[in-house]
Amino acid sequence: MADKINLYDLDLPELVQLLEAWGEPAYRAKQVWEWLYVNPVAHFTDMTNIPQLLREKLELSATLNVLESVSEMSSSDGQTTKLLFKLADGQLVETVRMDYETRHTLCVSTQAGCAMGCVFCATGQMGFYRHLTAGEIVAQVMFFGRRLEEGKRVTNIVLMGMGEPLHNYDNTLEAIDRITAEDGLNLGARKITISTVGLVPAIRRYADEQRQTPLAVSLHAATDEERDRLIPINRRWPIDMLMESIRYYIERTGRRVTIEWALIAGENDTIEQARRLGELLSGMLVHVNLIPLNPTEGYGGQPSTRESVHAFQAELSRHGVSSTVRVRRGIDIQAGCGQLRDRVVQERAQQLKRQKETTTQN
Ligand code: SAH
Ligand code: SF4
Q: Exposed, middle or buried, 103 (CB in 10 Å: 0-12/13-18/19+)?
């Protein structure tokens, strides 16, 4: 499996090249492409207009299933589904599907683990394993795309699963290109949100590309003292540098930036932090998303009370800064990023320990 080509790693010209090398005409590649993105199927045998011999050849050297689903959970209201996938080399990543009326939003991972070490984040707590390839990012989207009921399609994507998208810049943007390709899945670029912890040079590079994909920045604190505690990368790119890069992005693109803020009781949910945040953002083309913290195994912080959330929000509006309180959906299925993997890995470790104990006892 590890040696097989993940077809989602190829763009159309590369697919044409591959099939041409096998002596196939260019239109064959287009037909296969349509089975990948337009009428997506999970098996080569379902590619009914492709000659049997070619299907067999594809089966031998390529795969449509680089992701193996190892655990699946749905929230009690059935609106959130979370999958844990095993990659060809055994790495585990998560993808979440959230349904709301006619919207089907996917929360997609860009790395196995994360190098940024944010203290409140389950993925940060596990450390960095590796970047995902563009095809592994695309495959998460197509896995759900293939499973959606007749007539439904993925409407929105947020790159808010495991990992820091701008740390895996090239593969992430290549994946976005593939997902938005007009002759493929054709999802609007405006429907895909990149969320970053604040990698300043990458934000500037992204601004210069003037793409339409919206940007969200995980700020979570309005003073360096507070942000250093929560987000280690702040020591490298402190708040004033980060804010400068956000202003540069807005200037270059004219696009509004979302500011993410996980409210942690007694930590970053104080009126003082709200005031500092209001001062930082006043007059800027931004919107703040307030999310009550999702508690994780490795961090003692708790979500803010409803009263503190409202007081925080009121202080922001005093500075003319708009905000929305987001409900973190799917808390009952550990839908916070990195949490399902954590649970499954812990359960496996316990299982192995139990097995070992029984063997020793025997
Ligand atoms: N690395 C990127 C994207 C993945 S994290 C980033 O940090 O922006 C997606 C969002 O989930 C970020 O805003 C992150 O700060 C937030 N997050 C991580 N752990 C959380 C938790 N335990 N509770 C609430 N939000 C959390
Ligand atoms: Fe990485 Fe984002 Fe988690 Fe920070 S919050 S550790 S950047 S995934």
A: exposed
Q: Is 48 exposed, middle or buried (0-12, 13-18, 19+ CB in 10 A)?
A: exposed
pLDDT tens-digit series, residues 126-169: 999 999 999 999 999 999 999 887 788 999 999 999 999 999 99
**How far is ligand 2, taken at its centre, from the CA of residue 261, in Å?**
13
The count of other CB atoms within 10 Å of the CB of residue 79 is 14
Are 287 and 258 within 8 A, CB to CB?
Answer: yes
Q: Ligand 2 test: best mutation among 93, 111, 119, 121, most atoms within 8 Å of CB?
A: 121
- What is the reported pTM? 0.93
What phi-psi label fits residue 23: left (phi over 0), alpha (psi between -120 and 50 degrees) or beta?
Answer: left
Nearest ligand atom owner, CA of 260: 1
Beta bridge partners of 65: none
Ligand 2: residue whose CA is nearest its atom 6: 124
